[in-house]
User: Fold this.
Amino acid sequence: MASSVAAESLEEAATLVQTGKIAGFPIVLVGVEFWKPLLDFMRATLIKEGTIHPVDVDEFFVTDSPEDAAAHVRNIGMKRFGLTYGPRMKRRWFLGE
Assistant:
């Protein structure tokens, strides 16, 4: 049940990216072994039949590391919105710091 819900959510997000409804949206798949059968099916069947383009599958970021997943999302967000790490706020005595 959980795997079918995850696959449906992945399909919906990928469709929105493919149709241009959302741009620069990071699709991160955590759990390499969990997602391997689906990705193998996409590469072996869907790409071969021309249902999807190979670039579509390459857009997925697959990892076992939560830190890598968070870094990937952060980097895309920073690039897309031009964000940077600014200077730290100066400590103020009147805030009890």
User: Anything to note?
Assistant: Strands lie at 28-30, 61-63.
